[in-house]
Specification:
By secondary structure, the protein is α+β, with helices and mostly antiparallel strands. The chain has one helix at residues 24-39, and strands at residues 42-51, 57-66, 75-83, 89-99. A four-stranded antiparallel beta sheet has the order 1-2-3-4, covered by helices on one side. The radius of gyration is 15 Å and the shape is elongated.
């Protein structure tokens, strides 16, 4: 068994060039993992995945930015994450910030 922060023997690094994105689900996982490593916020989910013009991926990842009590007042954000065809992060940006309990407008 491994301790938190340790990697198990035989697992590949997320920076390995050998990997490639096999579909929308794989792109969502790559984007969520890469973003959470950079911004250190808990990923709540993925709200959109689409192909980019260069055969890469654009993924909208929702994260918890500020936890509050009650939970419905917590602040969440949506980040647009762009991946190249192999799943490497090219860029990201925050496109929205909102309260968990807020209705879509």
């Amino acid at each position: 068994m491994t301790e938190p922060g340790e990697r198990r023997r035989g697992t590949r690094s997320t920076t390995t060039r050998e990997r490639s994105v096999r579909g929308a689900r794989d792109a969502a996982e790559h984007a969520a993992d890469a973003l959470s490593e950079l911004i250190r916020h808990r990923v709540e989910g993925v709200s959109a995945v689409c192909r980019s013009e260069d055969e890469g991926w654009v993924v909208n990842v929702d994260v918890l930015e500020v936890a509050r009590i009650p939970d419905t007042t917590s602040l969440l954000a949506t980040y647009e994450v762009e991946l190249d065809p192999s799943g490497d992060l090219l860029q990201y940006r925050r496109v929205a910030r909102y309260r968990r309990g807020a209705q879509d407008q």
